[in-house]
């Protein structure tokens, strides 16, 4: 009789412990109304997009990417933020006017048009090679501006994983581009080709 009472007590105690842990017997997914979900969880960008630290030390939403701007006669890496670091998005960063903080730091982009015609018509990535199609206005730049514009594009694009080389065309026709030292090449180029221009 005592053994039966002890057994019943153990069963009852086990039931109390299970109920205290709130174990659910629900076996199917439950849909939660949007009104019951924190707002931030309904916005994928607010969850997935990291923050990039700008030149001023402030943070902005987006994926941090490194672009290369010109200061005097060298290239300087700068952190910007983009939603998706495609070649087109990176070129757009170079074509945009520098921020006030970048201007104050003496930085510029040879590709910034300031309302003028675009210098880059298109940019695509194929098997690790980014092909940049330049606009006719590029030919109107002086030799130094052409060199630094090409260097900005090459170093910025190859700073992204998956891009190792950059090839250039002018309205879809392959062209030669300037290299440091006054030479030119019609082959795809890498950041190493412009390494002497990067600020140590």
Global shape: globular
- Major sheet: arrangement of strands: 5-6-7-8
**Global structural class:** alpha+beta
Count of domains: 1
Percent range of helical residues: 25-40%
Poorly predicted regions are 2-52
**What's the story with the biggest beta sheet?**
4 strands, mixed
Q: Total helix count?
A: 6
Oligomer: single chain
Task: Describe the protein in words.
The chain is of the alpha+beta class and 200 residues long. The chain has one domain. The chain contains six helices and ten strands, in the order αααββββααββαββββ. It has helices at 2-20, 39-42, 44-48, 87-95, 100-104, 143-158, and strands spanning 51-53, 59-61, 63-71, 74-82, 120-126, 129-134, 165-170, 173-174, 177-178, 184-185. It has a four-stranded mixed β-sheet. Helix 4 (87-95) packs across helix 6 (143-158). The longest helix is centred in the first third of the chain and has 19 residues, at 2-20. Mean pLDDT is 79; it is low at 2-52.
Supply database-style keywords.
4-stranded mixed sheet; two-stranded antiparallel sheet; 6 helices
